[in-house]
Amino acid sequence: MRILHLSDTHLYGDPAARHYDRIDTTAALRGLLERFDAVTGLDAIVHTGDVSEDGTAESYRLLHEILEPFAAAKDATLAVVMGNHDVSATYGETIALGDRGTSVQDRVVAVPGGGRIVVLDSSVPGAGYGHLEPEQLTWLGEVLAGPAQGAPGERDAAAGEPATGGTVLAIHHPPLVGATKLLRGLDLDGLDELAGVLEGTDVRIVLSGHYHHEMTGAIAGIPVHVVPGITNVVDPVTSGDREQSRAQSGASLIEIGQGAPRVVTSVFPNLGDDLDDAEIPVYDFGPEQVTAIVEAAGR
């Protein structure tokens, strides 16, 4: 499998809206896809959540107006994950299941050649952190233990057996401890329980977003890749006690074959930036602001 991994577009239904009063998120997405237009041989495009900033039907239609033609031109399956800024019910009512393999909440999307993408919805309504219910973990265990059963109308990735081409788990909140105080307050809980379900399965890699910066790690011995955000990229190392992001956009190519998955990430200047000076942070939160955000949206 060769996958283009995207995340955190934060689109708006209102074309005049700007993220942090600065970033034209539609232009950021279009600009990033132009950078990847020459990429060939894609089997799937995976968007790991925070599709929308405002949770509107118009923002979800906009994503598909942009991504559907791109995926069609690449003859690639499209899988979309829900994030903490998304409204799963609105997305499900807006986008018909089966649109190029599009998935809603907990689903299985088949990839030509025998692979599959398993999508988990880790969002918690009204919160920024991630959580998986026991029922979701049970469902995931059943899927990984047997055939790739998708929603009605979706293709069967590997009848009677786990996916012959391997499984990719896509979940917005990374199953990794966050690198900053803010992200640790908004990360995924229940990592031990999830690891128990994943251990010994055919999952080759876990793909996530949410953190807005590249990060790697592992859960149950399975590689985890966190892709940079498209709307902005967080600085997790040099910002110290502050939380800062830059006017950048990133995406990754994931190649799954023999041996460990191969991951290549590119980060570009954000082509939706309304400012002339890209060195000015998109946001710069001090310790008090970070604490307030965690208290409002964290666990």
TrEMBL record:
GO MF term list: hydrolase activity
Residues making up the signal peptide according to the UniProt record: none
SUPFAM superfamilies named among the record's database cross-references: Metallo-dependent phosphatases
Keywords: Hydrolase, Iron, Metal-binding
UniProt enzyme class: hydrolase
Family: Belongs to the cyclic nucleotide phosphodiesterase class-III family.
Protein's recorded name: Metallophosphoesterase family protein
Species of origin: Brachybacterium tyrofermentans
